[in-house]
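Hi all, posting the design record for the shared folder.

TITLE: backbone redesign
STEP: 1 of 1
STRUCTURE INPUT:
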């Protein structure tokens, strides 16, 4: 059984999520806490799950700091982040820290099941941000398609810099940055900056 831990401030959503996950074949809810602090305390006492699920925006804790602590103290534990909204920079920040997936809180049970299964089996879930086989293609094959400038651009995409700031950093016009972006979209079959960041991080391209 894949053990899941959930931190959620809203009691109705917490209970509903627990009931939903407990009904998934092969999954069981190990921990349910109204706060991230409570979740971390339980883990420190020895109740360590396979997957943690919590909202990146919590009133009593910084979701990014919670993610950092989990990845530092329990590196084998996977984390599926929940959010009310799709915010590109928030997702990029979470990816850099080590999030294994993102899911909108408005998603249905089928999507939640798919997300948990993907995180457990493949180690990642990012809905339609990247093609299903995107991160399973041979690394060398993908990297050989890229120019030095595109590699540099990718590494800067992993920061929280705007495209204008990236252009200034690279010493090129914003139109050139737009060309790099569109070229990479075509080569990698993605259509968002998040997709570019996913590729960069999974290929070992670090933020400059």
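Okay, here is what came back for every position:
SEQUENCE:
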């Amino acid at each position: 059984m894949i053990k899941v831990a959930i931190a959620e401030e809203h009691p109705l959503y917490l209970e509903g999520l627990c009931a939903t996950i407990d009904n998934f074949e092969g999954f069981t809810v190990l921990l349910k806490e109204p706060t991230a602090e409570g979740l971390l305390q339980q883990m420190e006492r020895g109740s360590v799950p396979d997957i943690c699920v919590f909202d990146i925006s919590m009133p009593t804790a910084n979701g990014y700091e919670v993610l950092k602590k989990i990845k530092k103290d329990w590196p084998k534990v996977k984390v599926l982040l929940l959010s009310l909204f799709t915010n590109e920079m928030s997702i990029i920040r979470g990816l850099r820290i080590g999030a294994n997936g993102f899911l909108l809180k408005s998603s249905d049970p089928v999507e939640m099941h798919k997300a948990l299964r993907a995180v457990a089996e493949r180690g990642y879930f990012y809905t339609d941000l990247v093609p299903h086989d995107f991160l399973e293609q041979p690394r060398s094959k993908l990297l050989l398609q890229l120019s030095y400038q595109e590699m540099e651009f990718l590494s800067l995409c992993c920061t929280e810099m705007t495209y204008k700031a990236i252009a200034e950093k690279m010493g090129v016009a914003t139109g050139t940055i737009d060309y790099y972006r569109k070229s990479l979209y075509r080569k990698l079959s993605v259509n968002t900056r998040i997709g570019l960041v996913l590729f960069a991080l999974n290929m070992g391209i670090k933020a400059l």
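COMMENT: The first helix runs from residue 11 to 22.
Let me know if anyone wants the other runs.
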